[in-house]
Design brief:
CATH architecture of the largest domain: Alpha-Beta Complex
CATH topology of the largest domain: 2-enoyl-CoA Hydratase, Chain A, domain 1
Strand order of the largest sheet: 1-2-3-4-6-9
Largest sheet: 6 strands, mixed
CATH superfamily of the largest domain: 2-enoyl-CoA Hydratase, Chain A, domain 1
Radius of gyration: 20 Å
Distance between the termini: 22 Å
Number of domains: 2
């Protein structure tokens, strides 16, 4: 994995952990289309590497992400304009604004669906699309400096691509409340809503991250991936319909190299081979 190939991300590898930093601090890491593409690429590269087990996502300069870069949106609006005498609506495939929105939505889906474990460190501004990214990771650790904003409706637009992830993380009622009020949350309010899982003082965030990553690394990577996939199915499937499928998943895991090693390690009272 070539860290120099990324212009808007900074990468650092620590064993099985890949630290991915949104690296546009002057704009509070506002998300350009180049950053969206690079976040898709780094995820694909991590999966292809085969030995990455955890992706840690954070922002440079004390902020996580201020949402979409408005320069990209302005350029898309210019491309979307028709001559004044042509009032026909654009076809979806020819609509640059819709294309930008779709590319970000595909990014969120890819990070939400990956079998790799994902952790976000949330500091400073967490806004718009950054709010959405906070909703798709497995574990969200916040600094008490974090401020979460969902300003789209106050700007006359819609939190379109993150809507499904807001409902999934917060529930329908809270997602709706925040959306229709253009809501702002501090870190403690975000914790109360379970938008984030932990809140720490700035000088305690890295220690919390180290602990969480260590806990993940004690779990078998194949079992983590299979568990994430089964939980994703369980969101929309009645339990009675999952009985046979879950039994088959469990049987495959129990008979796998990981299952055999995990059982042997437990009996022998030692750490399994995947644990640090």
């Amino acid at each position: 994995m070539n860290a120099d190939a990324y212009e808007s991300l900074a990468l650092r590898r620590d064993g099985g952990v890949l630290h991915v930093t949104l690296n546009r601090p002057r704009s509070r890491n506002a998300m350009t289309m180049a950053m969206v593409r690079e976040l898709r690429t780094v995820l694909a590269d991590a999966k292809q590497a085969g030995d990455v087990r955890v992706l840690v996502l954070r922002g440079a300069g004390g902020h996580f992400c201020a949402g979409a870069d408005l320069n990209d949106m302005a350029a898309a609006r210019q491309r979307a304009m028709r001559p004044d005498d042509d009032k026909r609506p654009l076809e979806p495939a020819a609509d640059p604004i819709a294309e930008i929105s779709a590319r970000f939505g595909e990014l969120c889906v890819a990070w939400a669906d990956t079998g790799l474990a994902t952790v976000a460190v949330l500091e400073g501004t967490v806004m718009g699309g950054g709010f959405g990214l906070a909703c798709v990771v497995d574990v969200a650790i916040a600094s008490d400096t974090a401020t979460f904003r969902l300003p789209e409706t106050s700007l006359g637009v819609v939190p379109a691509q993150i809507a499904a992830f807001l409902v999934e993380r917060l529930g329908y009622a809270e997602a709706k409340r925040l959306a229709v009020t253009g809501g702002t949350l501090d870190a403690r309010q975000a914790l109360a809503l379970r938008l984030v899982h932990e809140v720490h003082a700035p000088d305690g965030v890295d220690a919390a991250l180290h602990r969480v990553v260590g806990e993940i690394l004690c779990c078998a990577p194949g079992a983590v991936s299979a568990t994430k996939a089964l939980l994703a199915r369980a969101r929309f499937t009645p339990p009675v319909e999952l009985v046979r499928e879950a039994a088959a998943v469990f049987s495959r895991s129990a008979g796998s190299a990981e299952g055999i090693e995990g059982t042997a390690a437990f009996i022998a009272r030692r750490k399994p081979t995947w644990a640090p």
